[in-house]
Amino acid sequence: MIKNIQKKLLLHHPLLWNTKIIPFGLLALLINLIFLALGYYNGSIDFSVSEYTYNSGTDTALIVFVSIVLSLLVGIVWMVLYSRNNAFKSFYPKSAVSLYVEWLLILVFCIFNVGYSISYLYGKELRAKTYFTEKEFARRTEIISLSSMFVEGDIIENPQQEITKNGEVTSIPIGHFSYKGKEYPVKSLINKRITSFEYTTPMMDSLNQERIKGWLTENRKDSVRWLFQEFFKIVEDHKLKASITPESWLKMVYTYPDFSSYPTIGRVPKLLNYSNTYFRGVKNNPGDYSMYALPIDSTSIVTTDDGAIGASNDTIPIPNEYDYYKYYVPYNALLNSYGQIAEIQSTPIVNSEFVLYYGYLPLMLSLCIFSFRVTSGRNWLIGLVSLGITGIIVGILSAVISFLGFETTFTVLYCLVFAVLLIYFIVVCYRKTSKGISGITLNPLLWLLPAFLPIIYTTIIQISNRRYYNYRYDQNLQIYTESSTILWMEDHVMEFMLANIVLVFIIMFYFAHQIRKWKAVAEA
């Protein structure tokens, strides 16, 4: 069956047979699906974990390493089989469109073959996004954020008063603060800072802060009761445990009108000597404002003896005491899990910018393979060495000239090298007398093509910055304003990079026609 398929491809679709794109394209697609499934499986979130572990990226690093190894292995095997038959070098009748399509097929394979790690990362993010709809997730994060006002946390302000004692100026806490014309104790819940997620905007955070304060100052007890009930619905949904109920929580913390007499409600069951208070996807982590941290109420702590651990000789008993919160809710567990989802929702790794910039890798690889295909291994290697030496020389010249204040030397020399290579290739194709060294120069010409327009773009911005900055001095302070053109260019980098890829496709169509004509030129 496989032989029949190969025979039909050879007779009716020689380009597909020659490039081996069907078997290896399907293989690369299958590997991508495996990595996608693996990422989806590893992207599950444990909602019971209350601390973020810093080694959580180890698995991702290993997967990326494995994906690189697989890409190299599949790519090498494909190149060996692909290089066995070269119709272009054998002067097999080949149209310019066919040559262009061959490059497109190479590009398609490269896209699949270098995308294994992207499939894995996207699978992890896809798993996190499937837990809740966007509307439901926004509702839950709002409830968790509002509830942070009533658990252990930081206060917003701690007013100080400076006094002079024995000739020294010291600061002492005043013990109260003012809110909407009324005085409240510093410990008041109205002075508590809510914890917010990266998923929300600063405007939403400010509105939520004022919203919960309004409930307290306006004595809207039913609203706070509703909040606790909704919070515990989330707790029960994830099968987490708490030592209190919504009603007991409300009874302990709702002490109208000053809200200053309440026990400490822990975020975790056990009080540890250390605390990992960093959570991904959370803007103001607990402890970020340690100078405003409220002391833990001693009556809210229970010390237990979990037995005794013997010393090295098992004769001296050592007490094994632990401190537990008398009242706690699984707040840190929710903060940790929902923070991870919030980070993926707000700043996903696999976004349009990442995919666009990552797309330049298979584009460059396809041009390297295509140049090897239309020239030779010897010319390809000489072109690589020549380009490396040229790059070193250009780098040294740029470093030397930059001391004179010309920061655009490298980009200008890059454009000059590309222009010389392009003009030389066009002249060879036009004269049709001898290829000369065009078999060598064609390789770096194709390699430099994707970066040529971005280099020009960067050069224009750099030159414009030097030319259009308007300087004025005010009390030794240098102030400048940029031109609207520069600002527009800097704000549309993504659009330009996308347009550059489109232009590369168009230019490669022209190159395919010229390379076909160039092949007919005599070697000497």
Automatic annotation (TrEMBL):
Source species, domain of life: Bacteria
Alphabetized UniProt keyword annotations: Membrane, Transmembrane, Transmembrane helix
Coiled-coil spans in chain: none
Membrane spanning residue stretches: 21-41, 61-82, 103-122, 355-374, 381-404, 410-430, 442-463, 493-512
Name assigned to this protein: Uncharacterized protein
The organism's taxonomic lineage, starting at the top: Bacteria, Pseudomonadati, Bacteroidota, Flavobacteriia, Flavobacteriales
